[in-house]
Amino acid sequence: MRYLIAGLAACVFALCAAPSASAWVTFTNVNGYETQAEFVDPDVVGYPYVDEWPVLRQVKRLIDDVPRWQNETIVAAIHSINSPLIRDALVRARNEGVNVYVTHSGTDSGSTMAQSLRSGLGSGSHKWCTYGTVNNACLSTVGGARMHSKFMAFTRTVNQRTGQMANRVVWFGTANFTSGTGAEAFNDAMTVYDDWDLFTKFVDHLWISYWQGINRMADVHRPAFGYLRSTGSGIEINVSPDQEGDLVVDQLNRITAGPGCEIRVMQNQFGRQGVASKLASLAWGGCTVWVLVKDVDCMVVHYLRQAPRMNIRQRQNMHAKTFIIKAPMNGVGNYAVITGSHNLNERALTYNDEILVTVPGNPTLHQGYIDYMYRAWVGRTSTDTISCGPLGPG
């Protein structure tokens, strides 16, 4: 019976279509800027070492392909690390003439690997995010907050698809540089090449504020600071904490509901009733919604299950924070992906330094993400039986 239910769920989710062959990486462009998306499926067999999983392998490649001794720069915002692959790549780049600078959540300061990274880079290239004894954040002044972002930027590195050197490259995603919440869980990430304005927004606006500890405030999500948009690719970055609203609901409010609208949600933690209520409203408006979650609050389940065209499943090893949208947003386009570090819990909204990144989509990028969620939806720990309760700190 369990396999029958899984099979029926698969057909409901993807009209019984199998994933495409290019299951681990999707090459496309976003408004003319070359972009690649990488995906982790912890259910697959055949990877002999955890550090060979796609997202971490891509990060290592990006680091290794930065030209040496040419005054190039790598900046990174890291929440947590236990991967020797990434530590060694960053330290090796630093020792071979690359300027490497890392901001790192103070919550990770007790980690042996994190301390090893700091030792290898030197204190001038590594900074713990802390706000006195108040928190472990770079921007937020809220007690108990942490820097939970995951992004990197490179002045130059190689475009994997073309093999050519690219300028101003940005990587962002849901994965930590760890085994449990990086290489051994469902995660996704994107690399955007040659978008100089996106690079500027990530580095000169956001990352430098992390590094210098400036622009500290309890409500980071203000138009003057917390909303960034590339004039090139059109990729948008929303920064939290947000004390006055819900930046995820703001994004969902842009969706035009109706026949053909599809919204797929992959979440590590889902506790915000406002987001659940909005998804239910979109379903009532004609959208078909699929929600795949690891930890979920019971009231969220209640809101979701009241709506038609709503499908919800639960599974382990889910670390994504991703929305896959097939519908116009503000009447423009037909596809979008929302990803980044932002869980659907209260701490992501009102405590932590987080990024929520909205990427204008296209059929190729959309299909890559569909294949990714399909594998999670029908995977070995995916179930229709939902176990709900209060969420952890997140």
From TrEMBL:
Domain spans labelled Phospholipase D-like: 262-377
- This chain belongs to which protein, by name? Phospholipase D-like domain-containing protein
- A Pfam family assignment: PLDc_2
Please state the span of the N-terminal signal peptide per the UniProt entry: 1-23
UniProt entry keywords in alphabetical sequence = Signal
Q: Known InterPro entries for this protein?
A: PLD-like_dom (IPR025202)
Keyword Repeat in annotation: no
In terms of Gene3D superfamilies, this protein maps to: Endonuclease Chain A (3.30.870.10)
Q: Which domain of life is it from?
A: Bacteria
